[in-house]
Amino acid sequence: MFPMEKLVSLCKRRGYMFQSSEIYGGLNGFWDYGPLGVELKRNVKDAWWHDMVSGHDELSVLQGAPSEYEMTGLDCTIIMHPQVWKCSGHYDLFHDYMVDCRQTRKRYRHDQVRGRWAEAKGQKVFVTTMVETDQEDEESLRRAMKFFKLRNKDADQLSWDGGYRVLTEIDDFSQVLGPDANELGTLTEPREFNLMFKTYVGALSGEEGAAFLRPETAQGIFVNFKNVVDSSRVKIPFGIAQVGKSFRNEITPRNFTFRSREFEQMEIEFFCHPNSSQQWYRFWRDRRLQWYKDLGLSGERLILREHHTDELSHYSTGTADIEYAFPFLPEGEFGELEGIAHRGDFDLRSHMEGKLDEKSNPLTVQLGEDGKPKYRGSGKDLTYRDELTNERFTPHVVEPSAGADRATLAFLCEAYHEDEAPDENGKLQSRVVLRLNPRLAPLKAAIFPLVKKDGMPEVAKDIYRALKKKFNVFYDEKGAVGRRYRRQDEAGTPYCITVDGESLQDKTVTIRDRDSLEQVRVRIDDVVSEIENRVSCS
Ligand code: ATP
Question: How many domains, in total, are found in the chain?
């Protein structure tokens, strides 16, 4: 695949993504979406909402589903009652291990620091780096040579003992050269670091007013379960969906938007009867995988990874990740796009009864030192009564939890291609093209008059206005038409419509397809329906 820098530079050049607060040097882990990026991400979220929620056919049994089901939505606040996070487990357990460097004062995630044992001048040192894996060899060599004070001509004095290892495999840090340090043994022992951002609500100072920015959207759904059941007449099985911002104080945000500190999630909590929950789990796992395929992620780079039993949380009887082979990862490695988890009744019970014991028996409430429940639940009845059978039960939950930013990044990576296309004189020119699915493309079409005279702009502007009522389209009359095509190829615009001399005679225009480069003549009156057909069939 292509080097990631090419996509990063295209995103900047064409206004897909910018570093947040760039004019002040940027803020690590925060990204802004530019004029094209905001449209792309919105289209990803809209496609998800349409396909999963608003466009869901509640009267038919979908392929693989045990029965019909309903879908509804919510939009909850980012800051919630702090007790939510205590009962959900995030307050105690949502942490990563970090190591600090005493020399540089930098902080790293323990499991993300990689290095190799290097030997020279009778000394053995574990040389670490935090660079992208394709630059790792070069950077490790540079750092080791510098540490041992070796010149290039003395490179044969340096030898490596084994391949790369993660810092978590190293017990003694005294011989470790930290990623940015030039002395040995400057890394501290790993310590827990809660990933939730803390803030203070209202005028209360101190812990009384402390609250957290949500690290996931899911909990807003669980705590509103009863409200939705009581107000909307939904019947189990049904799902509640939410799209919104989440915040995690990631220790080492990296790989462009893949690991950010502020990001958007698209989550569904699907409530069902315990007896059919395994079938629903399999249904959602397969349905979510197919969604990415339908929007253009190819089978080869997209995988479904079922977790081994020892990876599962105690409450889960099945979890699978949908993963994509992002170009910034080493060959053969995949990054998570979405997790689909069977969560049993863990969440609803935690919010009813209090924080459940994570490690041993999930049915026992975790007790504090005084023997009372450590975190009391809401005490509200979050069970469900089936009106037909009169059975009362705590629903089981299947949770497909996706990241809007990671999905957007994966669609961009998959779309990026370099090839050749003929210019206006028929000569082949190299081009960068984003082969985005037309449903996702920020602009559906661009309209060009071939030249800026002879009445062509007027005709082109009329077509633009007719299309603009339905789609985001772009009008461009500047420069050679070949250059205009290439600009739209880079922006991922699937169709270019050109008004030429013939258009004025026979009231037709050409429609050029971004991917096949095929050009067909279409009557001006049919342009809107033609574009509509093409976009909806994609
Ligand atoms: P990871 O292991 O990569 O940190 P996770 O397993 O903690 O991810 P979940 O808690 O399951 O992630 O969150 C659901 C989805 O939210 C992920 O699949 C991902 O798409 C998205 N997501 C999670 N953390 C981030 C982040 N820091 N930046 C961007 N997206 C994220």
Answer: 3
